[in-house]
Structure prediction request, 512 residues.
Amino acid sequence: MTARVVASEPPRHTIYTEAMEVFHRAADLIGLDRRVRMELEEPDYEHIFYVTVKLHTRLSPLAAHDQPRYKDLPDSELLPDGLEPLLDGSFVFKRRALINANLVMRDGVVRLKGKGLYRVVPGRPERFKAYRVQHNQARGPYKGGTRYHQDVSLDLFKVLAAEMTWKTAIADVPFGGGKGGIKVDPKTLSSEELEALTLRYMYRLKPLIGPNLDIPAPDVGTDGTVMGLLLRQFTDGERERHSLRGVVTGKDTRIGGSEGRVKATGQGLAYCIQEWYADRGATPAGTRFLLQGFGNVGSNAAEILAGMGSKLLAVNDAGGTIFNPNGIDVPDLISYVYDNPSNLRRTVAGYPKAQQISKNDLWDVDADILIPAALGGEITGPVAERLKVKLVAEGANGPTTPEGDRVLAKRGIELIPDIIGNAGGVTVSYYEWIQNKRMEHWSEIEVNGRLEQAIKSNYRIIRDVSRNTPRRTATHNSQRYCIGREVDMRTAAMVLALKRIEAHYQLEGFSQ
Ligand code: NAD
Prediction:
């Protein structure tokens, strides 16, 4: 008899396998139970489905090389009210645009008075790929955001869902991890089309989620308005719909959202930074910080830190980079970005009270703190080599690459890792969920008081694990989590997450 030996294939290298490196490192260090490790290595469920939506007729800017052919095309006059401008430069065409219109079209091209040449793209149905990854529910219902973005993939949602499993454990809220969304560039859709897409997404998602099963929240490309639509579609026609409000978090405060939720992620990051300084007998007052990303997390963290007396020196976002060695007035920058209707892209670029510099130069600015609050993978090895800061406080998910981590450690630059740094959002989502269950509404002071206590005590546990200094104080107890040796902060955070998850399997067992 001959035996055939089949060589096992080496595991495929993906963003998921890369993101799981720290999981495996921490699992090895604590000797994580083999079966628990298997349960956590891959998600419980990976849902991929499709949603169709009818897109309206739109007017898309005519390509430059086609323009000379239409240079004699006369102006068309359409009712401006019937044209919805989109951020990609096109217009959604509504029938009322034709009221008293003067329309001249040649080969489907029109010239809009004062705007230029556009091609009419007739309305059509379109199919979008949608996802919901449910990673693990050992500690409670799946919990995680909903992302609308053109670059999403199953692997990305697996990474983000697993991160939620670790983050909910670190924040010590009774949830597991999930994440989902739609592969779409929301800038290319009208508000009506986005509404239709969102309702259809929930129509398909409804059998898979629920307030005690899986609870979505906002993420990149979605907000409180989208959460309101998801809530409406989920509860539509339900007999006890008011008891289902906790099916999504991040809602508007007028329909069951929590006070303090919008600022919560930036607030949590500011509490971590405050605690980092408190540990050194100092405060953030008089320090200087750099920021990447001036969206929800970045702008709120900046405003709160500035309120603590720290000075913002430079900001980079998708539109550009600004720098002022004397400090940037954060409330003034917020109003430049958010209250200025002509700043359509909501960018810091062009802010008149600072110099415009290149993104590359941001990394060379001498400061105390760098807050990445934009995208993943920005602090690479070469970027980390250049930084002139003492602390990197991660607001974004996964902003530092594994190589970036190694360089920061080598250079003695300290780190507040993302899974505690930006855990304020999910912590206040939990408060929203409890308020919905109890039909209560807490004040912002109450929310922030609880958030501060929760973030700081979990941060202290991670710091103790990192330094291997088991302690029990009035505010935290790290004795159960220290592992008998020092580890870096990112690994320490993962140790805390895994020990909290493992306890559920050890004490509750495995369902058969
Ligand atoms: P947002 O959409 O409100 O803002 C994103 C910011 O990043 C914008 O200022 C944008 O200009 C900037 N940006 C985009 N592309 C860029 C690029 N190529 N270079 C530089 N800047 C760029 O998003 P947000 O809610 O503030 O989230 C930011 C990060 O924080 C994301 O990684 C998100 O996953 C993470 N996060 C957010 C929350 C939350 O509660 N909002 C919670 C946890 C983690």
